[in-house]
Each structure stands twice: as C-alpha cells, then as structure tokens.
Amino acid sequence: MNGTTLKTALCAGVALTALTAFASAATASAWAPSRAASATKACSRPANVLDLKNWKITLPVGDSGDPKEVKQPDLATFSVHPWFTVNAACDGVVFRAAVNGTTTSGSKYPRSELREMDGSDDASWSSTSGTHTLVVREAFTHLPHGKPQVVGAQIHDSSDDVQVFRLEGTNLYLTNGDTTHYKLVTDNYQLGTPFEAKFVVSNGKIKAYYNGRLQSTLSKAFSGAYFKAGAYTQANCDNSSPCSAANYGEVNIYNISATHS
Predict the structure, then answer these.
(1) Nearest to 143 by CA among 235, 71, 214
(2) Is the CB of residue 162 less than 8 Å from the CB of residue 206?
(3) How many secondary structure helices (H) and strands (E) does the chain include?
C-alpha cells in the first residue's frame, strides 16, 4: 500500500468511527426521554411504591364527620396532592393532614392514614389468637404549629387506640391507651429521620420495637383489632394556628407490612 492509499484508508476509518459515535449518542438521546417517562410513570402513585393490597386510606378531606375513604381496587391507581402522594425521591409515600382537615365522627383530629383491610372487609383480629405483626419504615417530616404532635403508627381495637408511636416535638413516645407518655423512645428525634416501628401481638401481649430494639411489652386482651399507619395529626383549629392547609402534620412511609399467622 502506497502512502496515498494508506492516508485515504486512515481518513475513512476516522470518519467511520466518528459516524458510529454520533449514531450511538443519537440513539441514547432518543431513548432518554422514554426512559425518564417510564421512571416517572413507575412512581406516579403510592401503590407503585408501597404494597397497598390490604389497606384503605382515610383522607382529611370531604364532608364534616365523613372524610373521604379510598379502598381497593381504586386505591391501586389513586393519588391526591398533597395529602397522599409519592415523595420527590420516589422512594416513599407522603401522608399529610392539615389542622383544618375533615375528621372522622369518632375523632376531633384529621388524618391521612392507612387502615388495615382483609380483602374487601375491614381487618379484625384478636390479641389472644394468632400472631399479628406490623413493620413500618417511616419518617416524621413536619409537625403542626402550636401543638406539634403526630401519630405515625398504631394498633386499634374495636373501640379505641391500644398503642401508638406518637411524636411530640423531639420526643417520640409509645402510648398505653390514654397514657400518652407511657414510654419515651427517644428525646432527640430529628424530623426527616427514617426509623422502623414494629408491633408484634400474640398470646395477649403487645411487643413494640424501635429500630429493632424492644421498647415495651404490654399485657392486653382485645378483639376487633387492626393496624393503622400514616399521619394522624394531633392538632386542630382549636389548639393550633394558623387554621389553614399550611399548618399540618406529615409522615413519609418507605415500607409497610402487616402479617398474620
């Protein structure tokens, strides 16, 4: 091969390499929007992030004493900003309840909260039969002004809450019925810090865990029980100001599981 032929071949090779690189970049660019769209679609609603098959949501909106509830199968495609939606990182679900929100007939406080279901029926179990476990990975992310208190997870029986994880300022408590300060879990909780809350109910006892460590054991016999989790704001317009949607409690839930055996 003479010099002229070699030079021509080298130039052709460079041109082919450049063309191949350009084509690859163009292909990647063409796919990028569809990949982004797919990612957005994949976390566009809470059921894309959490397994909500056996839950329903109660929201702080609707008629007085009759807040909106969404059950399956509608819950599988449901989202409502800002009360029940996917967070910005697409790794958790935001539950928000403002102090001026609609409340249930049995409470004076608003909630954006999941309630355990058994298929299409309300879950209802006994503390003295079987083993019932709730595991929630969550973070309190906002507290209402005036009365900075929010419940993030709870056990409820047929008439009232039995035990809950309750944040008051920086103090995280486990309750015992109406004893709201039964067990101080930590006095230095920082908003936005994820933690694992866990209840195990069996043989008439409730064992409550925080980040895998046993915090309390209660002996209680009760029936008609079910788990709840989300943002149950412990403030309203009578004790918290401003009385507006800008004053709210909020919880992010990253994972939730209720099992029975």
Answers:
(1) 235
(2) yes
(3) 1, 16
Q: What are 106-160's pLDDT values in tens digits? A: 899 999 999 999 999 999 999 999 999 999 999 999 999 999 999 999 999 999 9
**DSSP, res 203:** T
Identify the CA nearest to 85 among candidates 96, 94, 74.
94
**What are the tens digits of pLDDT across the range 25-51?**
443 334 344 444 445 557 889 999 999
Q: In this structure, are strands 248-260 and 131-142 parallel, antiparallel, or unpaired?
A: antiparallel
Distances (CA, A) of 184 to 153, 167, 168, 176, 245: 15, 10, 11, 12, 30
Q: What is the C-alpha radius of gyration for the chain, rounded to an integer number of angstroms?
A: 25
Topology of domain 46-260 in CATH is Jelly Rolls (2.60.120)
- In whole angstroms, give the CA distance from residue 233 to residue 249: 5
Q: Which amino acid is at 138?
A: E
Distance CA 202, CA 204 (A): 5
Distant-in-sequence, close-in-space partners of 74: CB < 8 Å, separation ≥ 6: none
The mean of the pLDDT values for the chain is 89
